[in-house]
Specification:
4 strands; transmembrane helix; Branched-chain amino acid ABC transporter permease
Length: about 300
């Protein structure tokens, strides 16, 4: 029983990490129709900004309020980078899909190279509060506190995103734009401002994933964002493009499937099963779990 509880909660922790990356990615594609392969860079920026702030920003540190301040700095850095990418590199390329892919892939590679040139290619120890390195007993299972932190953070982000999308003016514009961007534009609403806001939200969520991922893994490296981005794309496709709730469902399915199959099967079998799940969803429901079928 304790093994099942441990695998479930660690799987949900991994799912929370995937969701934090995938939520912004899903919104960006759903509204702006942009496949942002540089989204993993936002995660890396958040992780390294948090790591730097914990050791250099006045008042910040690896414990207590200092750690919260360091994470806030990392999240702000991710949001700023997301806005800058949209304004400078993506905005001139709307409706030019091939150029978008080339630019975002190039930006991702350049960002990783810049991080490696600045801080080296080797993983660096991540500053973590002491309590995140301990465990909590849940129904006989000793669950890492870092995983519980991820679950709580993802739940708060999901609630905040749903509240923003449902009860604020810009949230309603984003929801309407995801459903029918042409109609929103015809009503005289400038969706370009919403594009920038969505990139900022996506950058902030990915940066938070980078900061808490550093706590979860205990280290930070330039390639960390790229490896997590692969599973984030899988989560977005399974959940349905543009659906935050769908991304949450898909993240839970992917995280639990990976944990249970890797434990009871051979190493790496969980990743194969995730790809198989993706293939099944694409064959049976191409629009994803919570996506809407395309109409003609």
């Amino acid at each position: 029983m304790s093994t099942i509880v441990l695998l479930t909660l660690t799987g949900l922790g991994l799912a929370a990490l995937y969701f934090l990356v995938a939520s912004g990615l899903s919104l960006v594609f759903g509204l702006a129709d942009v496949l942002n392969f540089a989204h993993g860079l936002f995660l890396s920026v958040g992780a390294y900004a948090t790591w730097w702030a914990a050791g250099n920003l006045p008042g910040a540190g690896p414990s207590g309020f200092g750690f919260v301040l360091a994470v806030a700095f990392g999240v702000a850095a991710g949001a700023v980078v997301g806005m800058a990418v949209e304004l400078v590199m993506i905005r001139p390329l709307y409706s030019r899909t091939i150029e978008q892919v080339l630019v975002t892939v190039g930006l991702s590679l350049a960002g990783v190279a810049l991080l490696q040139a600045t801080w080296g290619a080797d993983p660096r120890p991540f500053p973590r509060p002491d309590w995140t390195q301990r465990v909590t007993s849940v129904l006989g299972a000793k669950v890492p506190n870092s995983g519980i932190l991820l679950i709580l953070a993802a739940a708060l982000v999901l609630a905040a995103l749903l509240g923003f999308l449902r009860y604020t003016r810009y949230g309603l514009v984003i929801r309407a734009g995801v459903e029918n961007r042409e109609m929103v534009t015809a009503l005289g609403i400038d969706v370009r401002k919403a594009f920038t806001l969505v990139f900022a939200i996506g950058g902030a969520a990915a940066a938070l994933a980078g900061a808490l991922g550093g706590v979860y893994f205990g280290s930070v490296s330039p390639s960390q964002g790229g490896s997590l981005l692969i599973f984030a794309f899988i989560v977005v496709v399974i959940g349905g493009m543009g659906s935050v709730v769908g991304s949450a469902y898909a993240a839970v399915a992917v995280g639990l499937l990976q944990q249970f199959v890797n434990y009871y099967g051979t190493s790496g079998a969980g990743d194969i099963c995730v790809v198989a799940l993706l293939a099944i969803v694409l064959l049976l429901r191409p629009q994803g779990i919570a996506g809407r079928a395309a109409t003609t």
